[in-house]
């Protein structure tokens, strides 16, 4: 019964948080939300007031995070930053919590092992070309990365806005079109910190149209619009094999997404002109082959983040793809996406803002 209740809440809470107003079912959680707010405020004051608790890495640190629970599009922002900063002469490394990773100790992320590294770090290691280290303690993860890669002269933290011990030079808050939901802190709402926290951020990136509550809180901050682009699918059996949506003409299509807002992926597929049956999963869902069986009579489309966890079902084994040895697995394709981040007309770009914040230092 406990497991069933927990599963029910996991499915219902986001709907209540991002619905209009405060759902009556949430009202009993209000006292817990007040307690949570007090704990968050006290913890932040402690780290800001006591320099002995600070963890300063010997290189500049950029934190990309969000105020809400779940994904909002941070990973594409990190990939965008790695590419742009590398082109500007910096040598970035990436650190991440590694949600669902097998161990909490700092270690290098494995591009082909999401179970050991976490789904987002595995994706970052695969896509970025930069060293990626994971660990609950971001300071320790950064130290381990720099020890293993002393040529790195910049650290980008994927998430970590609330990891106050890690000192940072730049903070970027990312929101998707759901914004701050009902504007309340956990568990009454989706916020991990109050919206007033944005006053300390360097910039806000909107992954979708700005939502009114979060937009009001971000007034006065540099703000940037992000659009995710991608129209070429990659086969899970043979990653070198690519195709466009037209290759699926006449086939029965299914789509799954285990990200913060699954509907964002489904809207992307619809914009490509595809029609499909959708199956949302919880963010960071740990897939097993049975989870894919619903699409056994057709073609399955998924996000790149989901693909790093499902790829092992299709990996070559004994010279034959797993799809030929595990019954019920559908043909599967992932859709890689890239961020396009734009400033308002006449305003400095995000990269320019970051380089200015880094004091215009020439990379060492």
UniProtKB/TrEMBL annotation:
SUPFAM superfamilies, per database record: P-loop containing nucleoside triphosphate hydrolases
Pfam families attached to this UniProt entry: LpxK
Amino acids binding ATP: 68-75
GO BP field: lipid A biosynthetic process; lipopolysaccharide core region biosynthetic process
The keyword Acetylation is assigned to this record: no
Catalysed conversion reaction: a lipid A disaccharide + ATP = a lipid IVA + ADP + H(+)
GO molecular function, one term: ATP binding
A single cellular component GO annotation: plasma membrane
Keyword Lipid biosynthesis: yes
Primary enzyme class: transferase
UniProt entry keywords in alphabetical sequence: ATP-binding, Kinase, Lipid A biosynthesis, Lipid biosynthesis, Lipid metabolism, Nucleotide-binding, Transferase
EC number: 2.7.1.130
Pathway as given in its UniProt record: Glycolipid biosynthesis; lipid IV(A) biosynthesis; lipid IV(A) from (3R)-3-hydroxytetradecanoyl-[acyl-carrier-protein] and UDP-N-acetyl-alpha-D-glucosamine: step 6/6
PANTHER family assigned to the protein according to its UniProt record, in alphabetical order: TETRAACYLDISACCHARIDE 4'-KINASE (PTHR42724), TETRAACYLDISACCHARIDE 4'-KINASE, MITOCHONDRIAL-RELATED (PTHR42724:SF1)
NCBIfam families in alphabetical order: lpxK
Family: Belongs to the LpxK family.
Its biological purpose: Transfers the gamma-phosphate of ATP to the 4'-position of a tetraacyldisaccharide 1-phosphate intermediate (termed DS-1-P) to form tetraacyldisaccharide 1,4'-bis-phosphate (lipid IVA).
Protein name as annotated: Tetraacyldisaccharide 4'-kinase
Protein source organism: Rhodocyclus tenuis (Rhodospirillum tenue)
Upper taxonomic lineage: Bacteria, Pseudomonadati, Pseudomonadota, Betaproteobacteria, Rhodocyclales
Gene name linked to the record: lpxK
């Amino acid at each position: 019964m406990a497991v069933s209740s927990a599963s029910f809440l996991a499915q219902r809470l986001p709907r209540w948080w991002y619905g209009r107003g405060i759902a009556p079912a949430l009202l009993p959680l209000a006292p817990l939300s007040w307690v949570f707010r007090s704990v968050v405020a006290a913890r932040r004051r402690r780290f800001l007031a006591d320099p002995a608790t600070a963890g300063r890495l010997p290189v500049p640190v950029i934190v990309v995070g969000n105020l809400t629970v779940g994904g909002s599009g941070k990973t594409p922002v990190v990939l965008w930053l790695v590419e742009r900063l590398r082109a500007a002469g910096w040598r970035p490394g990436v650190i991440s919590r590694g949600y669902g990773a097998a161990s909490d100790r700092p270690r290098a992320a494995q591009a082909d092992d999401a179970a050991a590294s976490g789904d987002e770090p595995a994706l970052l290691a695969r896509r970025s070309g930069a060293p990626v280290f994971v660990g609950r303690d971001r300071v320790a993860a950064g130290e381990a990365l720099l020890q293993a890669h002393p040529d790195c002269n910049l650290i980008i933290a994927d998430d970590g806005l609330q990891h106050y011990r890690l000192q940072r030079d730049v903070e970027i808050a990312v929101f998707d079109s759901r914004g701050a939901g009902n504007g309340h802190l956990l568990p009454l709402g989706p916020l991990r910190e109050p919206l007033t926290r944005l006053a300390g951020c360097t910039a806000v990136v909107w992954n979708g149209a700005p939502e009114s509550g979060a937009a009001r809180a971000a007034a006065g901050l540099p703000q940037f619009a992000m659009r995710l682009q991608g129209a070429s699918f990659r086969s899970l059996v043979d990653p070198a094999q690519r195709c466009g949506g037209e290759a699926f003409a006449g086939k029965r299509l299914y789509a799954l997404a285990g990200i913060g807002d699954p509907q964002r992926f489904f809207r992307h597929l619809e914009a490509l002109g595809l029609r499909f049956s959708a199956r949302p999963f919880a963010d960071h869902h740990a897939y097993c082959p049975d989870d894919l069986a619903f699409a056994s009579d057709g073609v399955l489309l998924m996000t790149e983040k989901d693909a790093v966890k499902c790829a092992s079902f299709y990996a070559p084994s004994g010279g034959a793809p797993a799809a030929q040895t595990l019954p019920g697995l559908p043909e599967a394709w992932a859709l890689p996406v890239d961020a396009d981040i734009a400033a308002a007309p006449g305003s400095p770009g995000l990269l320019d803002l970051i380089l200015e914040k880094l004091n215009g230092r020439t990379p060492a």
